[in-house]
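ASSEMBLY PREDICTION REQUEST
Request ID: AP-0331
Submitted by: J.K., bench scientist
Number of chains: two
Total residues: 573
Priority: normal
Notes: Please return the full assembly, not individual chains.
Input sequences:
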Amino acid sequence: MWTVQVAIEHLTKVYRGQVRALQGIDLTIPSGMYGLLGPNGAGKTTLMRILAGALRPTSGAFRVGALDGATERGRTAIKRILGYLPQDLGMYPDLSAREFLDYIGILKGMDDRKLRQRRVEELLQTVSLMAVANRKLKSFSGGMKRRVGIAQALLNDPQLLIVDEPTAGLDPEERIRFRNLLADLAGERTVILSTHIVEDIAQTCQRLAVLNYGQVVFFGSIADLLQQADGKVWTVTTNGPKPTGNYTVIATMRQGATTQYRVVGDGRPPGAQGEVAPVAPGLEEAYIWLMRDRRAQAPTSALA
Amino acid sequence: MSLYLAELSGAARYEFRMQVRRPTLWIVFAAFTGLLILLLNQGQSAIGPYYTHLVAHTTLLKVLADWTFNVNTFLPICLGPLLADRLPRDRRTKVDELFTSMPAPLGARLVGKYLGALLATLLPILLIYAAGVGYIASLAHNPLAFPLAVITFAAIALPGMLFVGAFSIACTAILWTPLYQFLFIGYWYWNTLWFHADIFNLARTLLSPIGLIIVMGVFGLNESSDGQHAIHISATLLQGVASMVTLIVVAALVLFALERYLHWRQVSQ
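STATUS: Completed
Returned structure:
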């Protein structure tokens, strides 16, 4: 299978009421697993929906490999190589998982009945739903529905897989299982994983972009993002008060008579009592460091 | 083109399956038919004596045309409301976004939805219709009633059903579903069941979804079903055929307009 690169140029989306969800995004997404991180309302879902063809941009362009997302023909061609798992996945509750996947296969243009049915069975096996394949979807749990969601996205063996908040609402085991499945899939395709859960990115992606208020505020490798926060993360172990000042407390852990705080801030926390030591940043801390100053610059008109 | 047809027939197959499994579909038709039998099966114009008389005094084709006309006058009251939620359901269940990300054209999905859901909703009507045809065939001792009934249904009932189906699928793109259902039932009572009244009435035009012009023009019926109130209009064969064509063409235009509207709505999001 050949993989594709997604090139986004000056992409802008303005909703009714002059709500600017995306503000001139430029981004190149290489093949493999790519993370899209940002707080709620950053514009991730809008970007995903535009790439999936469910929404039209106000201006700007994007290409998937050689396919132009600005033309009707290009969009249809992109849809043929696309697998999309929306944030809020819709299903017909009265269909069984097998029927639903077959229906989606038809709409994806898989007109050879035998091939389609074989693919449906393969994917039911992949997502471990074979035993409940004839049960109506309305009886499925959230995790099972997500698995049906990923199965439908993979039906046409897509070169580009877009998954929007796929682990939201899943229990820890389901989340891990889901992340592993995505990472396995990324070996031979481009997977865009949009989430506000930093851990999901940390465990699966080498490269990522961070969105905030409809703008790309960072793109690069995880190592690049971690490097930005180098020397900005501290542990403060004290039996005194919580560190104050321009610091974000990431974690608080009681250790008998003392409490250990993990904080993110520029320089050694001034006035902190007790033992203060610099530590290597994790991705969550690097993300907090990146977003720290940007929260104050919030434009009023951006949304999801 | 073959892919388009495959997507259309696939959508039709699953829409049929989902609609035919709805308990509401069967409950509504059973209850309404039971009510009709209770109301109409009384006195001189009771169904049994009425058709016994008709079979003895007129041709089999006219008897079947009369039966088809009666079925087509009453049962679409259920057809419209039962089809009206098919399009809003895609929004309610949020499959809209997923389907938009797929290469299948909107037109194929819409026509598939229309045909599949309509055919499923026609199934109870066809069963009731077939029961009546069986009764007429037994009265007439003539099995030819069955093939003739296919012709009368296709000519009298089907154009109106296609017409009503198209509006019922399309109108809820802009109207709140319960409001459409209320308006539809009101329209059906006022405009089609009272077609004898001297007020403006769509049922006396080429756009008659109950098939009044067809039944008069093509099959030569000129009396109302109770045999008492003469309908003071007449129709020629040409008008009957024109009514059939008009109903089918308008249904197609409504679906085309719906596809354009939904496309525009998606683009202007």
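REVIEWER COMMENTS: The longest helix of chain B spans residues 106-140.
SIGN-OFF: pending second reviewer
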